[in-house]
Design brief:
This protein is an alpha/beta fold. The chain has a single domain, classed as 3-Layer(aba) Sandwich (Endonuclease, Chain A). Helix 2 packs parallel to helix 4.
């Protein structure tokens, strides 16, 4: 079992961007000829942005965003983690609403969607770009 200091150090090393699933998605989209922007200034800091189609793509980590399938709560400090993850879920909803209000479409995938169903994810993104606008303004795998 880790000490609180060891756990804090481990958690501080977790990457917030350029994660494995995100890089995998980016690599396949780029190979398919789809061009996106990184670091585009929008609410929520989307992982990928297709500016001309006004589509923002997020790859959400199962732990940090509370995946109902893989989002396991730590055994220690449960109240802290429960509150933190619930705030993240609420922020995700607020970001979605802000982006839609600004005329953007939002696509969110769990990291496990990228790992297990990358072809479906890329086809959905490609279809959304071709359509130019997503009916209902949001596609959520979650």
């Amino acid at each position: 079992m880790l000490t609180p200091e060891q756990r804090s150090r481990c958690m501080s090393l977790v990457k917030g961007k350029n994660t494995g699933p995100e890089l995998k998605l980016r690599k396949i989209l780029w190979a398919q000829g789809l061009r996106y922007r990184l670091g585009y200034k929008l609410p929520g800091k989307p992982d990928l942005v297709f500016v001309s189609a006004k589509i923002a793509v997020f790859v959400d980590g199962c732990f940090w965003h509370g995946c109902p399938i893989h989002g396991e709560q730590p055994k220690t400090n449960q109240r802290f983690w429960s509150e933190k993850i619930n705030k993240t879920k609420l922020r995700d909803q607020q970001v979605n609403a802000q982006l839609v209000e600004l005329g953007w479409s939002v696509i969110r995938y769990w990291e496990h969607d990228i790992e297990r169903n990358i072809d479906t994810c890329t086809k959905n993104i490609y279809s959304a770009i071709i359509k130019g606008k997503i009916d209902g303004t949001q596609i959520k795998s979650k």
